[in-house]
Design brief:
Low-confidence stretches of chain B: none
Number of strands of chain B: 11
Helix content of chain A: under 10%
Number of strands of chain A: 11
Radius of gyration of chain A: 14 Å
Radius of gyration of chain B: 13 Å
Shape of chain A: globular
Order of helices and strands of chain A: EEEEEEEEEEE
Distance between the termini of chain A: 41 Å
Strand content of chain B: over 45%
Oligomer: heterodimer
Chain lengths: 111, 115
């Protein structure tokens, strides 16, 4: 059965800290891995990763995929209170058009 | 403005009373999907549609119906709601999966309570 596991479940840090969020997956015929940020509303898209070892970067956020070890990490440097959110990881497969989500990592950044 | 809209945003209803949650997108997306989000369980896909008149079950389709008569609309129908369908529902849309996958755009969510 396809599945996505995120860790940690929850993270509390101070502003300025760097955090690493993990996403491991098991999926048949992997197509892509996506990261979303969810504040008190709908998830918003961050990154889509399809190739191993190629870092995607947007400001203080970056992500990389390891297709051999079946995981991805999302890094946030110099965290700000506005980074507080639930970060969701999802994977898609060539076998199906479904998108499978992990349960998310809740990040709280305190001043 | 490109967006996915859902209505209603909040709904409290009673067991067994049929309801419909509407979803509409203005981005000419082929792919549309419904999710429910529950604490500890994350986002789970209910149904999805690759194009007009094409729908498929997701991971938790029981108790739900969908239709895709027009490209822009993808309503979610609960014929006989039950309390275990109390949840936060999201509609999402995207273009057809490309070589590398697809980015989904989410609606604002509908919080449904069934008493």
């Amino acid at each position: 059965e396809d599945k996505v596991v995120q860790s940690p479940l929850s993270l509390v840090v101070h502003e300025g800290d760097t955090v690493t969020l993990n996403c491991s997956y098991e999926v048949t015929n992997f197509r892509s891995l996506l990261w979303y940020k969810q504040e008190k509303k709908a998830p918003t898209f961050l990154f889509m990763l399809t190739s191993s070892g190629i870092e995607k970067k947007s400001g203080r956020l970056s992500s990389i995929l390891d297709k051999k070890e079946l995981f991805s990490i999302l890094n946030i440097t110099a965290t700000q209170t506005g980074d507080s959110a639930v970060y969701l990881c999802a994977v898609s497969s060539y076998n199906t058009d479904k998108l499978i989500f992990g349960t998310g990592t809740r990040l709280q950044v305190f001043p | 403005e490109a967006q996915v809209t859902q209505n209603p945003r909040y709904l409290i209803t009673v067991t067994g009373k049929k309801l419909t949650v509407t979803c509409s997108q203005n981005m000419n997306h082929e792919y549309m999907s419904w999710y429910r989000q529950d604490p500890g369980l994350g986002l789970r896909q209910i149904y999805y549609s690759m194009n007009v008149e094409v729908t498929d079950k997701g991971d938790v389709p029981e108790g739900y119906k969908v239709s895709r008569k027009e490209k822009r609309n993808f309503p979610l129908i609960l014929e006989s709601p039950s309390p275990n369908q109390t949840s936060l529902y999201f509609c999402a849309s995207s273009f057809r999966p490309r070589q590398g996958g697809y980015e989904q755009y989410f609606g604002p969510g509908t919080r449904l309570t069934v008493t």
